Structures are given as structure tokens and as C-alpha cells.
Amino acid sequence: QVQLVESGGGLVQPGGSLRLSCAASGSLFSHNSWGWYRQAPGKQRELVGSISRGGDTNYRDFAKGRFTISKGNTGNTVFLQMDNLKAEDTAVYYCNLGQPYRSPYVPSEYWGQGTQVTVSS
What we know:
Layout: E1 2-7, E2 10-12, E3 18-26, E4 34-39, E5 46-51, E6 57-59, E7 67-71, E8 77-82, E9 91-98, E10 107-111, E11 115-119
Parallel strand pairs: 2-11
Antiparallel strand pairs: 1-3, 3-8, 4-5, 4-9, 5-6, 7-8, 9-10, 9-11
């Protein structure tokens, strides 16, 4: 069984930065790709970006140039660095562990509980 726990959300002013973390525990085996998603009130959950087993990243257009996904050294942590945040980035952010042995990233059934990010002055 795999468990994912996100942290790092909070309230930030427009133009500010936040760094989200997602820590995985359990039987990770060959899981080593990740995705970050977000869900704003009244909207569907959407992909923010992903990182493959080899470290290649992909981002949605709204995240390019502002968001950066990286992995921790231990292999069970992934980060989402968010800079120049805008009000429209307000959402609950979720991490997802990619399916094992798949590259590029393919989402699995393993999700974290989400962390709230609010961008407001």
C-alpha cells in the first residue's frame, strides 16, 4: 500500500512563492514518476505538470516559466516550486504517483489528500 502526503500550502500574496512537498511511503518499488494536479472551486482537477523516472519534466502552459517540479534525493519525495503566483492559481494541489515502470509519467490510483494554496492580497 502506498500513501502520499502533501504539505507546504498556505496563503500567499500575488507575486509570491510557495514550495509544495509530497512524501510517499509504502511499497514504492519501481514507482518513480510523479504528477502534480490542482482543483479550483467548481472546476475539474487538472494536471499542472509531471516528472518522469529519468527526471524529464512537462508542464501545462499556465505553469511554464513559473512552476518547477523536482524530486528529492531519497526517491520518495517530489516538490512543486511555484513562483510569481497569481490569484487564478488558487486551488487544492494534489500529487500523484506514476504507474511503475512507465515512462513518461502515467497516473496511478495513488493520490495525496491535497494541500490548499490561496493567492490573495
